[in-house]
């Protein structure tokens, strides 16, 4: 990226001649590259994960168990974003927390690279912990580079940062996926560790360009609070250790002893957090009304992510066993399907941004509730579309790769209708008291959706069956229609937020 670092003294808000990154503060290059390499490692490993779990040369698990592990892993990543933000706010500050996160993620990928089942699950846990720590804080550090919310470069900076995410997500399956599938699974996981190592090195070397605010611990814990937190953490860790030791020694241990508690937590914690905020008596009437409206969006998002995130599990496992995985006679690894979404995001995101702006100028931009409704309907339609390749496979034939590409395309359009809109409405509707925590609450919608998928898989539901796929499709479309029908009521609850 050296060619993009230029001398610039005319950029608004940039004092004096200094190096910039596409007209933005030099620190954005550090965070861009760090996030790009972290996403490279994360999405590369994620593309391999369900395939490795079912492969005869991998763990050789059933499709249902693989989907459950994949879903529980994703729900855990987003669940840990909430304590990840708390850890930075109370203990280390964003910058040091991200450095620790990078090291933990790298160690996790190295552990995944070891050819042992026990170490594999430990590696998944480490990557989830590190991702939770990083996800909650690196975006905050991007915001620190600018002079408050009114800095004219701020939105553009986040757009450049978002490009870094999708570049990493696009390249990862093409490289890590190819190595893992065609050479050696564990070498692929090791390559993910190399990616995170490059990201961590970039972060440490470019740290001097970051804002001093990123070193600040906003609400540091007192010594008494630290001692109390340490005692409680040690107590719960000891309880878990004793419990699982007893279960293991007694011969009753199975993966469900780990997956079920995490899955239940993924469903219960979002409900508890939203309920606590909703019942807070210190919120004024307008804030409580907005939280009532937000619950609609939260539930809609959970349904959306429940189906959308199966693109990396249910669809990937189907492609591995029942798709041709070739175009015009040219074959490709199954993991390459995971590059379809990021390249579509990069192509379509500017189109949607321009569309909303053009409609807003004419006073015809759809409301947030309407966008959510169409996002849900589209993700439901993607699973109705999935019924076609399922029928082809049931007939004893291999489904064409373009069926899966079409499904990913419809899901991506739905994502652009819902995901960025959800991020925006979360910041707009958050009560002042919970301004920082509400972004973690938004991520909990992903946790709830993935936990639901995990619970179904643990219960033995085959998510590749026609009836189950059709039921999920009907659920999403029905939820979308419900949001659309009640859009005026939701709009009234939102108050001054569109």
Automatic annotation (TrEMBL):
Transport is among the record's keywords? yes
- Write down the Gene3D superfamilies for this protein, in alphabetical order: MFS general substrate transporter like domains
Renumbered residue ranges of the record's region Disordered = 1-22
Q: What parts of the sequence cross the membrane?
A: 43-62, 68-86, 98-118, 124-146, 158-179, 185-205, 233-251, 257-277, 289-308, 340-360, 372-393, 399-418, 439-461, 467-486
Which biological process terms from the Gene Ontology are attached to this UniProt entry?
tripeptide transmembrane transport
Q: Which domain of life is it from?
A: Bacteria
**In which compartments does the protein localize?**
Cell membrane; Membrane
Q: Which NCBIfam families match?
A: yjdL_sub1_fam
Q: Say where the protein is mainly found.
A: membrane
Output compositional bias ranges, type Polar residues: 1-12
GO cellular-component terms in the record? plasma membrane
Per the record, membrane topology reads: Multi-pass membrane protein
Per UniProt, what is one GO molecular function of this protein?
A: peptide:proton symporter activity
Q: Which UniProt keywords apply?
A: Cell membrane, Membrane, Transmembrane, Transmembrane helix, Transport
Similarity remark: Belongs to the major facilitator superfamily. Proton-dependent oligopeptide transporter (POT/PTR) (TC 2.A.17) family.
Protein name in UniProt: MFS transporter
